[in-house]
Amino acid sequence: MKARVHVMLKDGVLDPQGEAVRHALGALGFSGVEGVRQGKVIELDLADGTSEAEIGEMCEKLLANTVIESYRIELL
């Protein structure tokens, strides 16, 4: 069983990496980019029978800093 966890900064949290990417894109001539939010994707290979609740617990305890980040679980 596989799962993919998408982690992003919550709305309202400054994203300096996203801003650096937006600035670099502008410097490369891509003037139409008004904002960039950068996140991470974590793919998990899991034993059969691992529940979505267990994956959520992994996110809460390690994979995401839930104070400033949100996450979405995608079962594959």
Task: Show the helix and strand layout.
Layout: E1 2-9, H1 16-27, E2 40-45, H2 52-63, E3 69-75
Antiparallel strand pairs: 1-2, 1-3
Subcellular location: Cytoplasm
Main location: cytoplasm
Pathway: Purine metabolism; IMP biosynthesis via de novo pathway; 5-amino-1-(5-phospho-D-ribosyl)imidazole from N(2)-formyl-N(1)-(5-phospho-D-ribosyl)glycinamide: step 1/2
Individual helix count: 2
CATH class: Alpha Beta
Going across the major beta sheet, what is the strand order?
A: 2-1-3
Structural class: alpha+beta
Molecular shape: elongated
Q: Give the SSE string.
A: EHEHE
- Portion in strands: 25-35%
Rg on CA atoms, Å: 16 Å
Q: What's the CATH H-level superfamily name? A: Phosphoribosylformylglycinamidine synthase subunit PurS
Please describe the biggest sheet, giving its number of strands, its sense, and whether it closes into a barrel: 3 strands, antiparallel
User: Distance between the terminal alpha carbons, to the nearest Å?
Assistant: 7 Å
Mean pLDDT: 96
Enumerate the spans where pLDDT stays under 50 for 5 or more consecutive residues.
none
User: What's the architecture, going by CATH?
Assistant: 2-Layer Sandwich
Pfam families: PurS
Family: Belongs to the PurS family.
GO molecular function, one term: ATP binding
Protein name: Phosphoribosylformylglycinamidine synthase subunit PurS
